[in-house]
Amino acid sequence: MFTLVRQSARLTRVPYQLIATRALSDASGMPLTFSSPYDVFYNQVNVKQIDVPSFSGSFGILPKHVPLLAVLKPGVVTVFENEGASKKFFVSSGTITVNDDSSVQVLAEEAVPLDSIDSQAAREALSQAQQKLSSASDEVSKAEAQIAVEVSEAIVAAVN
């Protein structure tokens, strides 16, 4: 493995030490910033792991994860805290960034703790979104209604 790492370092002109240390785990966790325009859930708090929904599939992030930029799809973000607790949040969309220093930023358009969502209200919102989609007359209205249906379906799935 180290031969391949050394060859990669020569090809990319990245110092070998930087690549070699990325593979080591960090027992203290990784700094997480998780916010929406309305709330800040974590601000540079060390956590063990984060599971996120993405259009390329759900995936987990551990300390020393490779740098990454991804788009969040509607779904559940799970944060595993260092103390052992896990917290779940529904996000409508957003981005996730893992930086070179292993810090992670989750920036959500909308995010709410999963346990604060009323399942009956979620089903009613889905029904209303489906009605709007069926009665939409122009392309913009159809696209907006389709997004509302997809988000509402994800909320209903998350709370059930």
From TrEMBL:
It comes from the Eukaryota. Residues 32-111 form the ATP synthase F1 complex delta/epsilon subunit N-terminal domain. Pfam families: ATP-synt_DE_N (PF02823), ATPD_C_metazoa (PF21335). One of its GO terms (molecular function) is proton-transporting ATP synthase activity, rotational mechanism. Residues 119-158 form the F1F0-ATP synthase delta subunit C-terminal domain. GO terms for cellular component: mitochondrial inner membrane; proton-transporting ATP synthase complex. Residues 119-146 form a coiled coil. Its main location: mitochondrion. CDD domains: F1-ATPase_delta. Keywords: Acetylation, ATP synthesis, CF(1), Coiled coil, Hydrogen ion transport, Ion transport, Membrane, Mitochondrion, Mitochondrion inner membrane, Transit peptide, Transport. InterPro entries: ATP_F1_dsu/esu_C_sf (IPR036794), ATP_synth_F1_dsu/esu (IPR001469), ATP_synth_F1_dsu/esu_N (IPR020546), ATPD_C_metazoa (IPR048937), ATPsynth_dsu/esu_N (IPR036771). Belongs to the ATPase epsilon chain family. Component of the ATP synthase complex composed at least of ATP5F1A/subunit alpha, ATP5F1B/subunit beta, ATP5MC1/subunit c (homooctomer), MT-ATP6/subunit a, MT-ATP8/subunit 8, ATP5ME/subunit e, ATP5MF/subunit f, ATP5MG/subunit g, ATP5MK/subunit k, ATP5MJ/subunit j, ATP5F1C/subunit gamma, ATP5F1D/subunit delta, ATP5F1E/subunit epsilon, ATP5PF/subunit F6, ATP5PB/subunit b, ATP5PD/subunit d, ATP5PO/subunit OSCP. HAMAP family: ATP_synth_epsil_bac. Subunit delta, of the mitochondrial membrane ATP synthase complex (F(1)F(0) ATP synthase or Complex V) that produces ATP from ADP in the presence of a proton gradient across the membrane which is generated by electron transport complexes of the respiratory chain. ATP synthase complex consist of a soluble F(1) head domain - the catalytic core - and a membrane F(1) domain - the membrane proton channel. These two domains are linked by a central stalk rotating inside the F(1) region and a stationary peripheral stalk. This is ATP synthase F(1) complex subunit delta, mitochondrial.
